[in-house]
Write a structure and sequence with these properties.
The chain contains four helices and eight strands; from the N terminus they run E-H-E-E-E-H-E-E-E-H-H-E. With 165 residues, it is α+β, with helices and mostly antiparallel strands. It has a single domain, classed as 7,8-Dihydro-6-hydroxymethylpterin-pyrophosphokinase HPPK (Alpha-Beta Plaits). Strands 1, 2, 3, 4, 5 and 8 form a six-stranded antiparallel β-sheet that branches. A hairpin with a 4-residue loop joins strand 6 and strand 7. The protein is globular.
């Protein structure tokens, strides 16, 4: 792939079922193997409190930087296929899951379609997205011109815990 053809994307990964650490590690390997994509960087793994219904196990999260030639919705299709391969079941909003893959950023593009919202609508509120993202892209500027470092100032780590490199 040539740099001219590639779009810089960031993918949020999370799991809190069926050996979450292994789920996220395997998904990172699968992202690296996606056709027309190149895994450029991956954050450490982080343990986070669940968002959503009470009584869920903690999550394991990470962020990956992917360079791709794929259109945004085609990339979304590939991410959802990986979720299905991990037996993702969507029973309740923000419920427990074997694997969650979110397209956080797609180049410097803003996308608002029935299927896809980029930048991810809640990423600025989620330490488990911002801190791993800052680990691999500390000087990132979001599509609206806001520096990632500014977002971190309003979203402290709280109980988020880095567990591995």
């Amino acid at each position: 792939m040539t740099e001219m053809d590639l779009i810089r994307c960031f993918i949020g990964l999370g799991s809190n079922l069926e050996d979450p650490r292994a789920q996220v590690d395997q998904a990172l390997d699968e992202l690296a193997a996606l056709p027309d994509c190149e895994l450029v960087a991956r954050s450490s793994l982080y343990r986070s409190d669940p968002v959503g219904p009470a009584g869920q196990p903690d999550y394991i999260n990470a962020v990956a930087e992917l360079h791709t030639r794929l259109e945004a919705e085609t990339l979304l299709d590939r991410l959802q296929a990986l979720e299905q391969a991990h037996r993702r079941v969507r029973l309740e909003h923000w419920g427990p899951r074997t694997l969650d893959l979110d397209l956080l950023l797609y180049g410097n593009t803003t996308i608002d379609t029935p299927r896809l919202h980029v930048p991810h609508p809640w990423m600025r509120e989620r330490a488990f997205v911002l801190w791993p993202l800052a680990e691999i892209a500390p000087d990132l500027i979001l599509p609206d011109g806001c520096a990632l470092k500014q977002c971190l100032a309003y979203c402290p780590m709280g109980t988020l815990e880095r567990i591995s490199l």
